[in-house]
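Morning!

This is the sequence you dropped in the shared folder:
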Amino acid sequence: MRHCSVQVRGLLTREELDRYNALIDVGHYLETQDRYDLVATVQKEIDILILPAIERLKEKSRQRDRDTEEYLRRKALEQELAKLAEEDDD
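The structure's back. Tokens below.
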């Protein structure tokens, strides 16, 4: 069984996390029984289950990029204003 990343797991809702853990347990049991044909089906269910959390992680990343861009824009504006103020003083 393949686990999802810690970042993705952290963005699962309580219900999704409970279902994820149950599916992982089932998958591990099936692996001990050498039922890899069924493990593949369980893994597909896990992959589908974590898709919303992956999207939430992507959105957090996009928001962080927007915040960084806004910060850099403000910083450049502040530097430009400081430069103009310095020129006015001269």
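Headline: The mean pLDDT is 95.

More detail when I'm at my desk.
O.
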